[in-house]
Amino acid sequence: MRRLRDSWFATLQSHVDFLSKTVLEIGCGDGRRSAEIASVCRKLVAIESNEERLLQAKKTHGENSMDFRHGSAENLAFPDDSFDIVIYTLSFHHVREEYMDKAISEAVRVTKSDGLIIFFEPAFEGTMFAAELAFDAGDGDEREKKALAYATMLRSPLLRETMEITNQSAFMFDSAEDFTEQMQPHKGTKEMMAIFFSQHGYLLRAQSRLHVFRPQK
Length: 217
Fold this sequence. Notes:
Layout: E1 2-6, H1 8-13, E2 22-26, H2 32-38, E3 43-48, H3 51-61, E4 66-70, E5 83-89, H4 100-110, E6 111-122, H5 127-135, H6 143-155, E7 159-172, H7 176-183, H8 190-199, E8 203-215
Parallel strand pairs: 2-3, 2-5, 3-4, 5-6
Antiparallel strand pairs: 1-7, 6-8, 7-8
């Protein structure tokens, strides 16, 4: 799999200034997006609850200007008003429903009054999403989780939305076998996958949204 286009951060930077900012990334995963953020901000602290992925992030990207730590969205181990920007990178919809409001409250607590809280979230459109549904691949059917995350952030009295930005990423797969190796499908035959990918030229697109909020303290 090759990422032909994943311009989420360039898109975000055209609207949000990260220079000289202290940033907290929640749900850093393997650290690939952390490296993009750290390349322009003054300091990045990135937390991840999955120990295996956190180890991968540290191993791949080292420390440098990135401070990788184990942590969870609903219990941030930082003082009040610690960061200029708090950003969830494709992670807020993975927070359990009963902890979502607490996670927002924690994000607001550690963000400066004039700071920003950003949610980078997957959308419901795109051929990558269609493939995940058709073959129960990747994160599978997350429609309910995505909708809940979207509704929770919009109804929160602790957040005031300033903008919502759409973004698109593109991924090229070499074959149906490449898709199987990368995305770990749980249903569908090789023949079905081959037909699906030949119809799309092995190029899948993923839609996402960037929600930018001001904390309401």
